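User: Please run a holo structure prediction.
Assistant: Happy to. Please share the sequence and the ligand.
User: Here you go; the ligand is Y12.
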Amino acid sequence: MIREILVYPDKRLRLKSKDVTAFDAQLHTLLDDMYETMIAKEGIGLAAIQIGIAKNILIINLVDEEGMQQKEDLIEVINPKITHKEGEEVYQEGCLSVPGYYDDVKRAEKIKVEYYNRFGEKIVQELDGLLAIAMQHEMDHLLGHLFIEKLSYLKRKKFEKEWKKKIKVDK
Ligand code: Y12
Ligand code: CO
């Protein structure tokens, strides 16, 4: 089922998500709904809080070398923890909860992350490139943070002004 995506400045996006304790059929349905929603909205990453569920769940599905988004490349991430970060990288990010706005954000270049898959199996991975960026972006959602909070003071002020104008026009 395609779910509604919360859009900034919805206060629920600021909630701190809680760990998943049951790796059951309800979790699997939620993950399936997240995937359907992300694909329908043309996203490459989604955190559960973006559909109003404050649980430590995120999904990432990057496009391959041919620009195709293959389901076999989908990563389902539950209760993630970053255990190591190194380097710095700047990437122009976007977010389904801030539609139409993109800006440069600085994040760690490489990370080591531990998480669980939908069956409760522990996964340990070292990530770099776009996957490392996407993982950090989505994990920020689990802490109630959006990428626009990482903008400089002036860029954030400009964003807020443009966003207020856009909300008025969209209404
Ligand atoms: C690098 C940086 C950030 C991420 C997080 C995942 N972000 C997204 O999936 C963003 C998707 C997105 C899609 C949009 O819709 C279309 O392009 C049709 C969009 O634009 C509008 O909604 C107007 C904005 C963001 C992963 C990796
Ligand atoms: Co986002």
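The first helix runs from residue 25 to 40.
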